[in-house]
Each structure stands twice: as C-alpha cells, then as structure tokens.
Design goal:
The protein is of the alpha/beta class and 383 residues long. The chain has 2 domains: 3-262, ANL, N-terminal domain (Rossmann fold), CATH 3.40.50; 273-375, ANL, C-terminal domain (GMP Synthetase, Chain A, domain 3, 2-Layer Sandwich). It has helices at 3-13, 55-68, 86-98, 111-121, 130-138, 159-167, 279-289, 323-336, 362-375; strands at residues 18-19, 36-42, 48-54, 76-79, 101-104, 125-128, 149-152, 172-178, 183-187, 202-203, 209-212, 217-221, 228-233, 236-241, 247-256, 259-265, 269-272, 275-278, 299-306, 310-318, 347-349. The strands form 5 sheets. A 6-stranded mixed beta sheet has the order 5-4-6-7-8-9. It has a 5-stranded mixed beta sheet with strand order 1-2-3-13-14. The chain is globular and about 60 Å long. The N and C termini lie far apart (50 Å).
Length: 383
C-alpha cells in the first residue's frame, strides 16, 4: 500500500487504534486506545510492549519537525525507513501535516539506487540511520541538488562519517529522539550545514521542555508524549497509562540553554572493579580511532558477568571487518584505557544480530557469546 494513502486513512477515516507493524492477533478493544497508533518496543523482560501515541501527538511532532526544517507545500519527504518504526512512520505523517508530496524508496536498501531515486523524485527531506549514511559516504556518492535535509536518527553518527557525508553534499543533521516522544526531541537546524559536522549539541524542538534528574537522566514534557504502554502478560493485554506530565528516560545527557548532548543510556553503565563504565562511550572511542573503518552497527562492546571483576568487557565485530582495522583500533585503545576500561580479546561473529534500524541487539549478542563460550565453540579473534 502507498504509505501516503495509509496515513490519510489512519488520520482521517479510521477512529480506531492502528498498529504500525505486525500486531499479534487483534488489538484489544480498550477505550484508551481509540485514536492511537501503536509502535512495538522491547522491554527488559522481553515481554511484548507497544507504545501508544495519539494521532494528535504524532501530528504535533510532525508540525514541529516541519517548522524546524523549513518544510513547505512544495517540499517532498522521502521514506527509506520501516513504517513500523516511529522514525519511518513520522516521515509520512510530516508530509501529511505539511500538505506536501511523499515518496517511498521501495527496493531493498542500496546506496547507489537510493541516491538515484532521490534525484529522480526530487526529494527535499528524508530521514536515515547512521549505517545508511556510512554506505553513501563510503561509496563516494554525491547528494542530488534538490535535497535540503537528511535527519539522522536511530543512533550516533560519528564525526568522521558525518564530515565525509557533508563533503559529498549530503545535508546530514544529527538528531535525538525516541518512540515515546513521537520521534524527534532535539535536531540540528539547517544553519549548521554551513559548518563542519559535529554530533552535538542539538537544539531542543520548541514543543519540548526538558530537565535532568539527579542521575543526569533526561526528563521531558510536551504535547507529543506517548499516552501509555500496552503490555502483554500471561496471555492478557493491559494498558498502563502515563501517569505524570514528565517522562523520565533512560538516557543521560548534558543540557544547557536548550542544547542537548547525548551521553548514552543509563542502563548501559556497568560496574567493573567497582568503577562505572559506559559501554556506548567506549564504542564511540573505538569508532573515532578507526577513521571510518568501523561502520555503525558492525561492532559492539558487551558486558558479560565475571566472578572477579563483576563484568568483563568484550568487543564483538562483524567478521567482514578488516582484521588490520580491528588490530590497530584495539591496540590504540589499550594504550590509553584505564585498567577498569580494558577490553578482553575481540570476538568475531559471522552475523551481528541487528534491529531493523541497524542497531546491534546487545542482549542477543551477549547470549550468543555466552552460549558459544560454554560449549567451547567460541572463536576469539587473533592477530
């Protein structure tokens, strides 16, 4: 189905709840879900969870993004992300809200085909994840002249990749958002395209109020917040409404003068030898040391239980990554890392389990390594 027709039906003709994805069975007939769109997310327990966003919230977010990126009725939003995720769904909602055209990149992801499609359909605005930007820059593809903005979400776009993309004319803009906020919370503006790319700080969109908890976790309040969460337990669905005006996230950030700098997820902080270690921070250091040799989504640092140190830090790489890059990056990291941040031997996997947006699935990777280690089939990388 044409996504633009789907959005029109959902927002204009269908008052009932709609699942942006494959909902297991019938959506429960709960009054709280009328006028809502449901997006699947994974809970820490592994139980199915669906975030409920009202159509009004999605339209508030879309309008704010459109104003921020100077979208007009003459613009064209291009969809290259899955509709079942709020980042992809939001693209088409923005076109609907702006009254402008939208186009869908139908084929399987392919960087040259995507660049040609953008040019043919004269797309002005689109959203991508870091892996897609890396592919475009690595292929040396130039951006088509009509393209005004590429919002990059779903993960951290490193400096090296961002600057390489901008040098080829790709107007990449770092963003920070989440499903619970109907997509974007903070996004670089078009004026930053005249400068060297930096992943932070990011200006808050005007619809959001933000503050920090005592643990530096971001708390947000605004009209695009989710209404609640649909959770399935023991075969039964229940709706847990958001109880407070403010939503406390799991993300640690710096916040100053309405500028936000992501620091990583609080639940990715682990103890090693009594010291807190940020797994995402280590990954960003490795990425920066690789000069673009470690593509987003192709490596991850996982923490495994350890009787002596509490956790052992294991770098895991996709087996297709150049062995020399792995050796050199780990060597450079080892020379400057404090003892409690030291990494164990690298592990290669034939396939890094990733989400549809390209994020490594940490729990699945850790479980795979643990199982392989227990069975004696784990093959550490050697140089």
């Amino acid at each position: 189905m044409d996504p633009s027709l789907l959005i029109k039906r959902v927002f204009r003709d269908d008052p009932g709840p709609f699942a942006a994805g494959d909902f297991p069975g019938e959506i429960p007939a709960l009054a709280e879900l009328r006028g809502h769109v449901l997006f699947e997310t994974s809970g820490s327990s592994g139980a199915p969870k669906w975030i409920a966003l009202s159509k009004a919230a999605l339209l508030e977010s879309a309008a704010a993004v459109n104003r921020h990126l100077e979208v007009t009725t003459a613009s064209c939003w291009g969809l290259a992300l899955p509709l079942r995720h709020v980042g992809g769904f939001g693209v088409v909602v923005r076109a609907y809200a702006a009254g402008c055209q939208s186009r869908e990149f139908g084929p399987r992801w392919d960087a040259p085909a995507f660049a040609a499609w953008l040019a043919k359909d004269k797309v002005t605005h689109t959203s991508l994840v870091p892996t897609q930007v890396h592919d475009l820059a690595s292929a040396g593809l130039h951006a088509p002249p009509a393209l005004r903005a590429v919002v990059v979400g779903g993960g951290h776009l490193d400096v090296e990749t961002g600057r390489a993309a901008r040098a080829l004319g790709w107007p990449v803009l770092a963003s920070y958002g989440m499903t619970e906020a109907a997509s974007q919370i903070a996004t670089q503006d078009l004026a930053t395209l005249g400068n060297f790319y930096q992943p932070a700080p990011l200006p808050l969109l005007p619809i959001w109020r933000a503050e920090l908890s005592s643990e530096m976790r971001l708390r947000i309040s605004g009209p695009a917040l989710f209404s609640g969460t649909l959770i399935r337990q023991d075969g039964l669905w229940s709706f847990q409404a958001r109880a407070m005006e403010w939503h406390e996230t799991s993300d640690r950030v710096l916040l100053e003068n309405n500028l936000l700098s992501p620091l990583g997820r609080a639940d990715l902080m682990v103890k090693v030898l009594g010291e807190l270690v940020d797994l995402e921070m280590i990954e960003r250091e490795l990425s920066g040391m690789s000069a673009g040799g470690l593509p987003p989504g192709m490596f991850v640092v996982v923490a495994l239980p350890d009787a002596r140190t509490e956790h052992a830090l294991v770098p895991v790489f996709d087996a297709t990554i150049n062995a020399v890059v792995i050796r050199d990056v780990l060597s450079a990291y080892a020379k400057q890392a404090a003892g409690f941040r030291r990494l164990g031997p690298a592990v290669l996997l034939a396939h890094i389990p990733r989400s549809p947006l390209g994020k490594p699935c940490r729990a699945e990777i850790a479980a795979e390594i643990t199982a392989a280690s227990t069975s004696g089939s784990l093959m550490p990388h050697t140089t």
